[in-house]
Amino acid sequence: MQQELINEFIDYLDVERGLAGNTLESYGRDLRHYYEFLGRDRRSAADVNRTTIVAYLLYLQKQGKAASTIARRLAALKAFYQYLLRERKIDHDPTENLESPKQKKRLPKVLTVEEVERLLSQPDGRGPAGLRDRAMLELLYATGIRVSELVSLDVDSVDLEAAVVRCMGKGSRERVIPMGSVAVRALGDYLERGRGALVRDPEEKALFVNQHGRRLTRQGFWKILKKYARQAGITREITPHTLRHSFATHLLENGADLRAVQEMLGHADISTTQIYTHVTRHRLKDVYARAHPRA
What we know:
Elements: H1 2-15, H2 21-39, H3 50-62, H4 67-86, H5 113-120, H6 128-143, H7 147-152, E1 158-159, E2 164-168, E3 174-178, H8 181-193, H9 195-198, H10 218-231, H11 242-253, H12 258-265, H13 270-273, H14 275-291
Antiparallel strand pairs: 1-2, 2-3
Helix pairs in contact: 1-2, 2-4, 6-8, 6-11, 11-14
């Protein structure tokens, strides 16, 4: 019964709200964890009150979960109980008026322009895999797309003549993003001399494929990125999102309009994009502290 309710809720989020697959998986995991907590006292999700929800949040806190994790799980519970209330499976919402724990704002980690240059120069463009890797890195930094969006691209998602890429973002929202000449050239080289040597099935639509000729995964890309970061001598932690953060920060540092950056990143709310203005101010302070004689 419990799993049925979760499945119904996930179907609702998928069909009615069009949430991305990763978000749906996250909701499912969080709700299953919540049911495990309820199972210790043999309660059902409908047989709880505000005190039960608070007890669950305190349980997460005692487990050492980060405020961001607790906030995400509470958001999942709020959405779940609102759905149950709307479907008349419960007669009250136990999460009503519960506030998420305050989270520290963490500034995104970004690379310097010089570090990006070193990273992007690592792939050996003489072989198919190197051509693919160079095209992926250049495209990520040129457009700021998410890694999930990168690996979801098909061959017809890019228009080299118009220098744009079309990608499907969160909430199934499509956006068209311009590419710079370097990324266009790298993609052209890969399509002309690299992809054909990697693909085994002529019907394969994926733009970027692995050594088996199938669509590259996010995990596969992460391994590739780590390898080139090591080669480039970048010792601090780098994730697939680092190039996206660097793309946004470098654009704003060079005078780009915040609304334009928001549109390219695919943020529904500009407040999400504004975190990068904090990054640029933070970096300016560092530059001032190092350079000004009276800093």
